[in-house]
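#onboarding

Welcome to the new folks! Below is a worked example of what a typical request in this channel looks like: someone posts a single protein sequence, and someone else replies with the predicted structure as tokens. Don't worry about understanding the tokens yet, we'll cover that in week two.

Example request:
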Amino acid sequence: MSKDKDERKRPQLRLVVNNVEKRSGRPVAGEDDFITLDELILRCHEFRGHFYAGVGRLQEKAYRSLERYLERKGWAYGLDPMHGRLMVIPAGLVCPEAIVPDSPQQDEVLVFAGEDLTGVGLCLSLEMIIPFWSDDDAVMEDALLSAPILPYGMLFLEENRQDSYLDLIYRVALPLYPPAPTVRVLDKLFAVARTELAETLRTLADFSD
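Example response:
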């Protein structure tokens, strides 16, 4: 009896499939101002002027370098000027292991270039919501503790504003000196993200079984 009660209290961590409203990597103030990843990619040229309007010189230089890098790689991407100037990339391009078979949903990787804490340079951040969830906070906390310790990035829990459940988020940050990232620096950033995301997803898949 007590075992059954405990199992009801601690639902299993599960993989998110076709659950866009709970897996948005970008803040949503309301449905009207949310733009899907596919639309951001389709309207990238249209949003570019708005994206760069008012951006500082160093930040613009970093984003332009990122755009050239992604175009050379042949990766689709979108520019979101409405939620803090985010570059949005399909997660499967960054980490193929992030693709959920037979799911119409496409998770996002967010890239942001902003001032670092020292105020003397920029910091390039890459972030993704890990597509495992539970409506039990204790299960999410266990998942965080069970996830691998990463040498470059970090995992943390953050409340989803839409449903108040916890999201498990991966983030890696890289200081830029000088501000414009080179191809070598960006190769390193995405290689780190792919390796660490793949390891995290494998570990959490085992945890959810």
